Amino acid sequence: MNLPNKLSLLRIILIPVTMLFMLPISIYGFEPEGWNAFIMEYGMMIAGVVFIIASLTDFFDGQIARRCNLITDLGKFLDSLADKMLVIAILIAFVATGRVSPWLLAIIVLREFMVTGIRLVASKEGVVMAAKMIGKIKTTTQMIAIIYLMFEPMLMKFTGDDYQASLQTPCAVSVIGDILFYICVIMTIVSGMDYLIKNKGYLKENPAS
User: Fold this and answer.
1) Tens digits of per-residue pLDDT, 148-165?
2) Nearest Cα to Cα of residue 91 among 80, 81, 105, 103
3) Domains of the chain: total
4) C-alpha closest to that of 47 among 19, 28, 71
5) Which secondary structure element, helix H or strand E, spans residue 84, and what is its range?
6) Positive or negative CA dihedral for 141, 143, 146, 147?
7) Which is the most buried residue in 6, 129, 190, 196, by most CB within 10 A?
């Protein structure tokens, strides 16, 4: 396995690490008070740092693959898979905390299922699709929105707002987060429609030979 693919794999490995710092532990009544108190105070900020590291692997694996001529079908698959797994897993955690609407998450997940379905059909014809530029833009807006949401609690400490209260009554910091997240949802829809229109040929029913 070459270096770009190892970086994509690292991005997948960092998913549970990020979620570990996002969510307090509660397993059949087992709730370690010390750890959960630490998570409530500093967890999201640490998760944000880990997420940034994971996001940087997305940038570097593509750069290294292109510069060193290490582009492979496995690399195209792993890069796209790692992006989807990272974003969806973290957004599920945000839904669990009440910060993200499950309806908006559903839009993102359904888009990814649609694109994955098209890629599977294309793969049967020997075509392995790399991520398109508009897909990269979509991923970038998602990363920016998620990073901002992760650092919201820290920003609210500076502004004097209460994070838990902001989940019910938005403040300036959370409104900015909402705007960034809506932008990433819009880009998710636009990139999904672009992907569908440009690859609709793969969805045409071919007669059996």
Assistant:
1) 999 999 999 999 999 988
2) 105
3) 1
4) 19
5) helix 73-97
6) negative
7) 129
Residue 94: inside a domain, yes or no?
yes
Tokens found for residue 40: 């409530």
Q: Which residue bears the tokens 């690490």?
A: 17
| Closest C-alpha among 120, 87, 83 to residue 7 | 83
Calpha distance 171→122 (Å, rounded): 46
Does some domain include residue 207? no
Which of the four pLDDT bands, split at 50, 70 and 90, describes residue 209?
very low
* pLDDT of 147 above 80: yes
209 domain residue, yes or no: no
Domain span at residue 87 reads 3-201
CATH number at residue 193: 1.20.120
Q: What pLDDT does residue 121 have? A: 77
Does the residue 136 lie in any domain?
Answer: yes
> Could you please report the per-residue DSSP string of 155-200?
HHHHHT--HHHHTTS--HHHHHHHHHHHHHHHHHHHHHHHHHHHTG
